[in-house]
Predict the structure.
Amino acid sequence: MTGNEFSAFLRARRDRIRPTEVGLPTAGRRRVPGLRREEVAILTGVSVDYYSKLEQGHVAGASAEILDAVADALRLDSTERAHLHRLARPVTPRRRTRTRASSSATARPGLRRLLDLMADVPAVIVGPSFNQLAWNNLADALFDLSALEWAGRTFPQHLFLDPAARALYQDWPDVASEAVDYIRFSAGLDPDDPEIRAVVGELSVKSPEFRTLWNRQTVRDKTFGRKRLQHGLVGPLELSFETFRLPGDSRRALITYTTEPGSPSEERLRLLASWRAEPVTEPGAHSESETSTD
């Protein structure tokens, strides 16, 4: 999988760049919208034959310096550059086994208690396939995550397969693009993760929009940003989100949502919180022994 992913990523990034962006002439007819292979080879400082082999997935002998030169030629940002290196140097099978073992669809009791203590801030813990692992009461009121859990749906499935998602997210195309880019980012960390493979496989078959976005080969970490919702109970909401990697497990993330102080969104979020006073997390949230160690 990794060699094919490496090839597809290079081709997609090459097609994205116009010759004028890197100071190359555009005279004559061009069969490709972006750079030709020979142009990338010139910018990288390698032979056309060598770069062609790279783009075919033959990366075993490529040094870090060569990969950085390719990244410079293709004008990759820091996230894309790191993704390129990971595709060229995938983790060992032993490392993958440990990583997958730590990525069960649960969150330890201490993290669940932390979520419940964040009563005024919607908060969700997500896994590498952007699947929701745990959430607090206000996040449930905001996104109806318990209903998704009971229906057996993860966030990506909801986003691409449920019409209700398009009504909830005012900027649905941006949210969808961000979700796919994050899943690809996670796939670069562990290309053989079964959860990611399952999500990509199902949605590639069931959602033409997901398939189109996935084939763009865009990679982006989920860091911070804004969401605009049209909530069924309280109306429009403008939220800012921040993402925090969990210590000891960088493939899980805590995402929090806040509103501007004094804004109509803050008032609406408070109103929503007042209607959900009792802590509610996903089914079985506190079923583990309270004596479990965190």
